[in-house]
Amino acid sequence: MQGLYTTGIRLYVLLIRLAAFFHPKAKLWWRGRKNWSQNLSQALASKRKSGQMTIWLHSASLGEFEQGRPLIEAVKSQHPEVFILLTFFSPSGYEIRKNYAGADLVCYLPPDLRRNARQFLGIVQPQLAVFVKYEFWYNFLQELQREKIPVWLIAALFRPQQPFFQSWGAWYFNVLKGFDHFFVQNQESADLLKKYGIQQYTLAGDPRIDRVLQIAAEGKQFPTIEAFKKDASILMAGSTWTPDEAALAQLWSDPKQYAGWKLIIAPHEIESAHLEQIEQKFPGQCVRFSRFQPERHQHLSVLIIDNIGMLSALYRYAEIAYIGGGLGSGIHNTLEPMAFGLPVIFGPKYQKFTEAVATVELGGAFVVHSAAELIKIFDQLKAPAFTSKASSAVQTYLQQNQGATAKIMQRLEQYLYP
């Protein structure tokens, strides 16, 4: 099985290399790992002091980074003497956070081959490795074990359907044995680990909750958004895809349905062609954020966010949030709007997200399968009493599930200073 895994990794790298000739993200993936060992050695030599304690934190992409970020910042706040190396698998994470000031060094993780893992650990020599959520890199875990370097998995989520827990999944289950400790998000994950004989876990919750509450408390302001909003109520649609935008366009096709309301759309992809498609769905109604001028565009009811990085703070201007992806392969971040106490609407592909499942059950989130259902629930949420009840459910969930970072830090303190 290990041979098949390694062959699969090599094949994946080969396909990425071929795709790099015509696909921008593949090109970034390949170029970012070119001469990785030399670049990493030089960067550490210039940035890290001799003998400085090093924690290596790895996240797949931007979403996982946000789960690890509260831990990074807690470590830096309480132990500035610790050197933090942050690695990414995906360009969508690295390119946006490559200059992140919370880490001492940010780079790509090399492909999970034994030689790479051995070389990487020989260069970095971390005292602790922390992986986020779904990162199960077999060769890196094997080498970490061989070097007796503790490795933790934070924000971990497990479900019975995963390969680890199948009758044919013995090899996958052995991957879990490479971790020294799991910080799981929910009771189901804890129960699964216990059922299969893994005792080294802590029911910590999701560190993203700490992060989104921090963002909400910062109260970042955007004059352009304030000028667009003025006295209107806002439906904030975040991380949308084409099916989401089609449903929103139907909602916005009748002015009577949105009287007194304005719509802000922050699409998941902001390529020019996609932005033009959105504009075509809202003829005469919309303007891009980068082009908005209050004196010319105040009468318009739809604002399209054509940049990356603002979304998490924009929810403070909204009364209701719509989260994209649920009409396709899966929803995006629901915790960001929840941090502002917003009722949340999304499509039916949400079951893999603990917070979404829980908030639906509590009555703070609402599932729609079509534009007709979106119109119906939006009409209900326009009633203040209905919205207030949903908002209370959202706030209850957050209050009951915050504090994951503190639980992880408590164990980290014991490790750093036994």
UniProtKB/TrEMBL annotation:
SUPFAM superfamilies: UDP-Glycosyltransferase/glycogen phosphorylase (SSF53756). GO terms for molecular function: Kdo transferase activity. Pathway: Bacterial outer membrane biogenesis; LPS core biosynthesis. The active site is at E64. It is found in: Cell membrane. Its main location: membrane. GO terms for cellular component: plasma membrane. Keywords: Cell membrane, Lipopolysaccharide biosynthesis, Membrane, Transferase. It is an enzyme of class 2 (transferase). It catalyses: lipid IVA (E. coli) + CMP-3-deoxy-beta-D-manno-octulosonate = alpha-Kdo-(2->6)-lipid IVA (E. coli) + CMP + H(+). Residues 36-210 form the 3-deoxy-D-manno-octulosonic-acid transferase N-terminal domain. One of its GO terms (biological process) is lipid A biosynthetic process. Its EC number is 2.4.99.12. Involved in lipopolysaccharide (LPS) biosynthesis. Catalyzes the transfer of 3-deoxy-D-manno-octulosonate (Kdo) residue(s) from CMP-Kdo to lipid IV(A), the tetraacyldisaccharide-1,4'-bisphosphate precursor of lipid A. Belongs to the glycosyltransferase group 1 family. This is 3-deoxy-D-manno-octulosonic acid transferase.
